[in-house]
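Readers of this paper often ask what the protein records in our data store actually look like. Nothing more is needed to write down the fold, since each code stands for a local backbone conformation. Below, we set out a record of this kind in full and without editing:
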Amino acid sequence: MIPMRRDSLMERRMQKLERLELSWQERRFFTEQMALLLDAGVPLTQALVLLTTHSTRRRLQFLFRKLQESVMAGQALSTVLALAPRSFSRLYLALIRVGERSGQLSAVFHYLESLERTEHERVAMIRNALRYPLTVLVVAIAVLLFILIAIVPTFESIYRAGGESLPLLTQKVIQFSHFLFSPAMLYWLTSFLILVWGIIRLYGAEGRFRYQFDRIVLELPLLGMILQESFIVRCATVLNLMLQSGVTLVNALKLFGESVENHYQKEKLEEMIAALSAGQSLHLSATDSGLMSDVALTMISIGEMSGELTSVMKRIADYHNARLKGRIEGLIALIDPLSLLFIGALVGVILIALYLPLFNLGSAL
């Protein structure tokens, strides 16, 4: 009976680990502390004991305790972390496996901490940039609805009592105000929600629709450039680390491919890997894939000819990381004035439409 109880307890813990979802701050704390302890020469099991003892958060305590028990029982760290897919991405796990095989686990944790911090700062920068225009947009929509629902009917009744013919712009604004209260509005709103739901379902099905959708997103003027730059930065950074650790180029690309979420890029990367496996050079396969920039392709060609592909990947990552930062700053600089211009123009058109009959009446007098 005792072994059965232990087995059932282990199963319950594994199920709980599968449901574990660490926040970004918690995952970064784990990664950072592991890097510091391993870098200081603390053995892996002792590092996990220290983290279990000193952690104050229940979720982290549970994770550290589970890792400690499993590693002391002979399991690999990456094997246990793989039981928590909601907390650790495939790329995270792949790099941990590389660190275990190469004996450079502390270096991998340092790299992961730097990678997560950089990506989080990038996302936070975009979110902060969008917060102000989105707030302005919500307030503007509320003001517009108030004008269309409360103010426009008042002006309509005044103009109707006067019996004068209204300008076309004023008529259209009044018609739109009526539309907001009509059954047609409910029909169009329902149709729009069904369309959005259908797109989300098709996107989640991961078929050709998602492939085409992801391809179109990459072709968008500024957002597509940011996504492409981000892909190159992550790819070059991961390849630099894996090639340093002795992983072959094909295997490194396969491991990186597991973390790629854009299906268009993922399929092109698989074609690139197939070409490499068939004996084609990285420069030619990357050129055919269309995933790399001209600068990156030139540097890859130089790296292959000189035998310095590993260090070249570091230079590619640094170069495109600087370009990526510039793209994001450009997007931020573009969003604020465009949002204010759009909202101001919309409010201005409605106000002009409301007062245009009065202006016409004044000029007639």
Observations:
- The mean pLDDT is 84.
- Residues 105-162 form the longest helix (58 residues).
